[in-house]
Amino acid sequence: MTALGTVVLAVAALGLFALGAALGHAGARRQQENPADVGTPVERATFHTLHTASLAAPPLRAGLTPDTARKAARRLRPLLGTVALALADEESVLAWDGTGEHHRAAAAARPAHTARTRTFPLTCPDARCPVRWGVVVPLTVDGRAAGALAAFTDRESAVVVRAAEEVARWVSVQLELVDLDRARSGAIEAEIRALRAQISPHFVYNSLASIASFVRTDPERARELLLEFADFTRYSFRRGGDFTTLAEELRSIEQYLELARARFGRRLEVTLRIAPEVLPVTLPFLCLQPLVENALKHGLEESVERGRITITAEDEGTEARVVIEDDGVGMDPQRLRDLLRGRGGPSAGIGLSNVDMRLRQVYGDDHGLVIETGVGAGTKITVRLPKFHPGSAR
Amino acid sequence: MNQTYGIAGVSAVVLATVLVGALGLRISRTTSDFYVASRSVPPRLNAFAVSGEYLSAASFLGVAGLVLAQGADMLWFPIGYTAGFLVLLAFVAAPLRRSGAYTLPDFAEARLESRAVRRIASVLVVGVGWLYLLPQLRGAGLILRLLTGAPGWFGGLVVAVVVTVAVAAGGMRSITFVQAFQYWLKLTALLVPAVFLLIAWRADRAPAPAWDERPVFQRSTRVATDRPLTLTVHAPVRVTVTGTVDGRPLDGPLTLGAGTHRVGPGTTLGFPRGAPVPLPDGGGPGTAPTGWAQPLSAGREQHGLYATYGLILATFLGTMGLPHVVVRFYTNPDGGAARRTTVVVLGLLGAFYLLVPLYGVLGRLYAPDLLLTGDTDAAVLVLPQRLIGGPGGDLLGALVAGGACAAFLSTVSGLTMSVAGVLAQDVLPTLGIRHFRLATLPAIAVPTAASTVVTDLPVADAVGLAFAVSASSFCPLLLLGIWWRGLTPPGAVAGLLLGGGSALTAVTVTIAGGATSGPLHTLLAWPAVWSVPAGFAAMVLISLATRHRVPASAAATMARLHLPEPPRGPATAPGAGPKRSRERRP
Fold first, then answer.
1. I need a labelling partner for B440 at 20 to 30 A (CA). Which of A33, A71, A94, B506 fits?
2. CATH H-level superfamily of A199-392
3. pTM (two decimals)
4. Distance CA B266, CA B224 (A)
């Protein structure tokens, strides 16, 4: 039966492909682990030591927890060549690698945060137990004790003491880097929080002024606009939650445009074309509103003619594509480039570069703003938002 | 069936689909009324869309064909297809929506924070999608063959090209409206002809099917063969022949004596009214002469009970893992709306599936010759012409053909989109996220190629296989992921690989025709009975063994999945339009 034959062939080909891919992957990995057998034995030993140390670094860089300590101890013990190695924080022994784990309690009884290196003999009822002697070296971070490293052998050895001290120093450096990492991510978070766009004072002033102009002529309209304004500010000033949904963001944009219409009247034409499928998409808070503000500024404020703003949200498989377009005066691409790199001076276009930066920070560099513009040719800004983002749901 | 009418029906459906898609796109809002722009899809509309996307060629054609061939046991298909949504409603819908996941790999990543689980889930999603696409394309081929006489692979290719072009050109923009429209189209295409068929059946003095006997030709029937057939005749019957019988070229009346006769390809046989259908004794599946109306006795070889449980498990638990269904729940604004959508879907599917067995029973009465030629999937298509005939029958036939066309168009486009999304995002990341449209090509090319190779598999059976894979991999992942905080990434990997992998292997062997009879074939053709427990057991046991690997944020994730969302602004609150809400405020 030819059909059966073809299918069997296809399955066999797939199987071969998978096997080949697996072998290639394994081969590549092996090659990575043994870069090349070059150099003298001493050089090779150095390579080996450096490589082992580099393998222990990633878990340590995540801080000292039972899980990371276990992974790190597994890599560090071959470095020392002792029968057992333990890592402890200020309170307890986190990980024990090697034999003789029944001494764990004894090691824990030692004051872990010793100020200096200590050696001590151990007694064991088991005659075959190789753990007879131990050395405890403190781990210090910024001058204070953060834990201890203990190595155990069958006899006293000055070499082990020296090696343990060196390894402990290396571990201490890694732990200091943890603090640095923490400080850096804290700085990034603070930056994101600071970047959280704020509504421009001009807008508040302009809105209130145009509402005031309606108070006598059309009190009902003025009341509606004031409620619009209240809603808009409630959304913009809200605390907590760095993410919002496209539906809420669009709602806020509608309020914004309603207020703008009070000011510009018939000069402003707005078209919204929103695919309802993408409304639940989550996105960084207030990252479309500045773009609309920008469009309004270039579409209307800098000219006296009518202006049209088109906002489109489309479904693109795993992403949503939002396009904000105006037919205003446009912008010189070179100037725009400077703006996005933050070289536009303090007054110009904080909004655009701010949004661009936040999008890149949240979704990665390939999700920044895409802006098409030219002098007198209007502006078209495209934002692509992934429908699912691991961080945004929280 | 009349070709002109049929082609007109199919063309009308394609045209209407394109029009609704394009018009939905044009409904844009200008300044005066743009408040409606930020209003989400209401649960009812989304339910229409879910049903429209879900009711595939397997439901429209396949179930009736299976009921015609194998009888009462096959009623589990429509029950299972619907009941799957009950499980989804009770255990999955709202938490899945609250997880914020768009696809199943997204859910795996959100719950377990592991790229490895995500990648395995992606591969399985593609596998299930392809398995589900395969019978849809075969159904398309069947319809085009009946309409135009084109070879079977041609129709699948046409649909594949149409869908690829539509997706690549971005023509499926207002997809919710298109799918909702397709649901009503499908329901109409079954309901209207069903009314007329019942009237015609009454006018025919309402004959009951011969429940426990061989089917009988109710009317004089002409059977055209396109491949060699073997007839088993028990009592001599006088037929008219054009073609070859028993190796002799004939043109005229002939009396077939008791015994077996070989009929050459391209032969037309005219059977008189009241003659029993010359089916072989206990030949292939579904031709067993007795026990058609009795559960667990007809067809399905010797293991009716086992096969039935396999079918029930697969369809009840498999629905939640179908990629195109999961994707649609993302459109709901929150968990509550997801639940409401599912409730409406249950009603809509129930209404649709009430009609399907009717076609099966009427087919048993009026189109038993399909059992001879093996084209039982065509029962729904040929019935209007058989029973009513004339221009009326042709028109109703065109309506049914259009509905069938809608069935595979909606499902194929939905599946292709979801498979392409997963392919672009997870499996072929080198393509880059921007190349979603490029990914539609492999998404549909593979099942199209497979559908030209695999020829003899009933449409509904093939869909059952996709359900089995989904039930043994994604059902454990979703149920345990949502309801058990102890699930760990290694456990999920083990469950997906063991449950999904074993089911996928069994299904591949079945489709490739590896085992065609005996207990081994039954085991492999209905894998859900053993693969679903295997998937669950692997996930639970390995998770228990790797307790320390429970993701640190498991508690927070569980809270998010199960706690109702905080009330949102008026924009997403159902029923609270901005105008009204503004007036309610002091």
1. B506
2. Histidine kinase-like ATPase, C-terminal domain (3.30.565.10)
3. 0.78
4. 7
